[in-house]
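Workshop exercise sheet. Pairs work together: one partner reads the sequence aloud, the other fills in the structure field after running the prediction. Swap roles for the next sheet.
Pair: D.N. / O.F.
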Amino acid sequence: MPNLRRKSIALAAAVAAVVLVAGCSGGSDSSGSTASGSQESDATITFTPADLTAPVDPLSPITVDVADGSLTSVTLTNPEGKVIEGITTPDETSWKPGEPLGYGKTYDLAAQAVDGRGVATSRDATFTTVTPNNQTRLYLNTTGGQSLVDGGSYGVGLVVVGHFDEPIGDRAAAEKAMTVTTNPPVQGSWFWVDDQNAHWRPQQYYAPGTTVSVDAKVYGTDLGNGLYGEQDEAVSFRIGDSHVSIADDNTKMVTVYENGQLVREMPTSMGMGGTETIGDTTLSFWTQPGVYTVMDKANPVIMDSSTYGLPINSRLGYKETINWATRISSDGIYLHELASSVWAQGNTNTSHGCLNLNPENAQWFFTFSQPGDVVEVRNTGGAPLEVWQNGDWSLPWDQWLAGSAL
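Structure field:
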């Protein structure tokens, strides 16, 4: 049976991504013949969708089926002349493409079958796949903006960020396409921070050793207003040891736990408190209370107050090179070395919001930390940490669920 492919390939989602628009359906059937003369075959070939001249649901599959017979050949050819491999059922009555079809391309489909007497029939068609108004690329990131590494290890508070490079009009469609699977299973949900960013986390911190797989089947998915996914994305990673640090302003200590065991206590000097108004902007100098996670780290990092609206030449402005800096918020809160504030660490808050540590402790924490490690800040003043600041874990679970489009 030339051209007939029998491959067990799990590509149903890829097939479902095909969208057909006005093309020209040949719809031609031809009867086979036998040595005794021309006969009409009992086999009937059908295509799905039946009307290849009209647009169809983006998730409807392309299939070739035969009744009262068996398929002998199905050939699907792209504009470059490449034959698209397909999958045929064991009983040779149904066929579907074995790989995704492209956007805005014209394909030729030809099928042959025979009935129980060996009398042949055929059918062919030409169709065109949809040309999207626009396409969007999905990136699977940490809250620090780095790509999640396949096979990587992360902290028990790791939040998956699905970042689209275009605003999404249909959040529900996007969310349905993004599946997160964990072993052992945990309850989790997506939360839409804005039209381009959806965050996923479990209800509770992961258990160490949990494996997490993210499978985003966005190719061919209509994400609203003619915007379609450019390509599928997937990543799998592992949760490492539990690192939870408690920064308590009552004691001005950072207490670090690994897998529930105390491993280090570090004196700190946190935000001095109060506010400063620069033009129309009021800046806060509190270390906001809430549950942060480690986003990334750098040694050294240049800290420039003008990046968040405080001029360098103002009363509280600064631009300094800082060593052993571990970032925990999107608006610039770090645990970092500051030898000049060692006198205050453990007794007085003097910083603009960061958690100052002595050189030895800052280097140790930098080396110890991984993205997704938890840092809980307690008993400080100022407004509670918000989700956009890397406060995903500060939001109560019922409010987190309310942020899902589903």
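Discussion prompt: Confidence is low (pLDDT under 50) at residues 1-36. What would you look at next?
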